[in-house]
Specification:
By secondary structure, the protein is of the alpha+beta class. It folds into 4 domains: 2-171, no CATH class; 189-216, no CATH class; 221-341, CBS-domain (Roll); 356-469, Uridine Diphospho-n-acetylenolpyruvylglucosamine Reductase, domain 3. 56% of the residues lie in helices and 14% in strands. It contains 18 helices and 12 strands. It has a 5-stranded antiparallel sheet. Strands 1-7-6-5 form a 4-stranded mixed sheet. α13 (303-312) links the parallel β5 and β6. α3 crosses α6 and α4 (60-96) packs across α7. It comes from Corynebacterium gerontici.
């Protein structure tokens, strides 16, 4: 009879441990699922299990409370049932090992408690937890029916416990939720993309496009625009023949039409407008007659709103106004696309000449109009905050004057040492050499990595020169 009771007790222990695993599995499976995954499963399978998973996901607070109750009850029952039964198996073994008879019972109980706890944790909690995390949908479909049966039996008690918990949570100033939030912020999506790329689930190019797309809304019109100093414009009195000549010369297809300067822009024309004018009238038709109105947006407008404005603009060109009401630059649809996809070249572009970053060995040739955030991402140099946005502006601010061709300088270190850990590639100092100027604007700079000793030597050589100038 004792043997039968022992066998039944062991079977009960196994059943209770498995029951604990059911509750643990439903808990981790439901919290690891996305609403879209569940809805897709309902549409694809349309069976009672898929609908049951959807029902429990929408009533998550109740289901998780039931799971906690189930885990508590089965764990307590497992300990109550397993400890004395397992102790019976350990007592003879301890006697064979020479343990005094008065000590065998308490030692056997302690050992039985440890073994029962270990088996319950491994097979009742850790194993189902790992299975549920690895394959949450399949796990939820498997365990949802027995767990729902338990919750139905103890529904009243679970509701009582849930209301008590919700009352306490509301007292803490938090409103309980019956369903997990499925929406994700741009920062969370960016982290998901980065993690997926690092694990190999997304290829590098796809991850880069997704990352840029998510960050696009954080950019501003001032960051997207082509600065006014590099904008090619036509005068209101210029003719269609001038439009054709400038299109051939620059390779651009759209031009603002101005009276004096960009602050007095009357509209925009495209090279296609030239073909609407008969050839014999191209020397007499002026741009003022062809110019179409162009929208004007502030520099602070975010990237998503900028893209909407550019798409709505008939010419796919908008002007950007600075805080003083002047024209800071212009944005085309190509500028928006390149912010997401990177440089895009057509048959009229010299891809090699227009490339913002060109690497040769350890050195980089970088366009002066490259933004500092792009420089940090591509080269790894993080500059200090200041009244500038581009590499050319940083060079000018560091020199304290308009740069000259051949100027060499040590780029300043970031004023936020916490950012150093995010640098990629070379982590030392950088020397910049101005290789091309466009009037007073830095057109091109060569960046070279140097050691701290070389940087100190260059900086010491600069100080006496500054003193002599003063």
């Amino acid at each position: 009879m004792d043997v039968v009771i022992s066998i039944l007790s062991l079977l009960g222990f196994i059943a209770l441990t498995a029951s604990t695993g059911l509750f643990v599995a439903i808990e981790f499976a439901l919290t690891g699922l996305e609403r879209s995954t569940i809805e897709n499963d309902v549409q694809r399978r349309d069976d009672h299990r898929a609908k049951a998973v959807q029902r429990d996901f929408q009533n998550l607070s109740f289901v998780l409370s039931g799971a906690q109750l189930g885990i508590t009850l089965t764990t307590l029952a497992t300990g109550f049932l397993a400890e004395p039964i397992l102790a019976k198996f350990f007592t003879p073994l301890l006697s064979l090992l020479g343990v005094p008879s008065e000590a065998t019972t308490p030692i056997a109980l302690v050992v039985a408690l440890l073994v029962a706890t270990m088996l319950s944790m491994v097979f009742g909690e850790l194993v189902p937890k790992n299975v549920a995390i690895t394959n949450p949908l399949a796990t939820a479909r498997t365990v949802v029916t027995p767990v729902h049966a338990f919750n139905s039996v103890f529904r009243g008690f679970i509701h009582l416990l849930n209301k008590a918990a919700n009352f306490t949570v509301r007292r803490l100033g938090i409103e309980p939720a019956d369903e997990l939030a499925s929406a994700r912020s741009a920062q969370e999506l960016t982290a998901l993309v980065r993690n997926s790329a690092e694990s190999g689930d997304l290829d590098e190019n796809t991850a880069l496009v997704l990352d840029r797309s998510l960050k696009f809304g954080e950019t501003t019109a001032g960051e997207l625009m082509t600065p006014r100093s590099t904008v090619d414009a036509l005068s209101a009195e210029d003719t269609v023949q001038d439009l054709i000549s400038m299109a051939i010369e620059t390779g651009h297809s759209r031009f603002p039409v101005i009276r004096g300067d960009l602050d007095d822009t009357i509209g925009v024309v495209t090279y296609k407008d030239a073909f609407l004018v008969p050839e014999d009238q191209r020397h007499s038709t002026i741009m003022a007659d062809l110019a179409r109105p162009v929208p004007l947006v502030p520099e602070s407008l975010d990237g998503d709103a900028v893209l909407d404005e550019v798409r709505r603009a008939g010419s796919q060109v908008i002007l950007v106004a600075d805080e003083y009401g002047g024209t800071a630059g212009l944005i085309t649809i190509e500028d928006c696309v390149e912010e997401i996809l990177g440089e895009v070249y057509d048959e009229h572009d010299d891809a090699e000449a227009e490339r913002d970053f060109q690497r040769f060995g350890a050195n980089w040739q970088v366009a002066g109009l490259v933004r500092l955030d792009e420089l940090a991402e591509k080269v790894g140099y993080i500059g200090p905050d200041g009244p500038y946005e581009t590499l050319g502006g940083l060079v000018m601010a560091t020199l304290g004057r308009i740069p000259r061709l051949g100027d060499e300088l040590v780029l300043p270190e970031s004023d936020n040492p916490m950012l150093a850990e995010f640098e990629s590639g070379y982590r030392g100092r950088w020397m910049a050499k101005v290789t091309l100027m466009e009037e007073r604007r830095v057109e091109s700079v060569i960046l070279s990595p140097i050691s701290e000793e070389e940087a100190a030597t260059m900086l010491e050589a600069v100080e006496p020169t500054k003193g002599a100038q003063r």
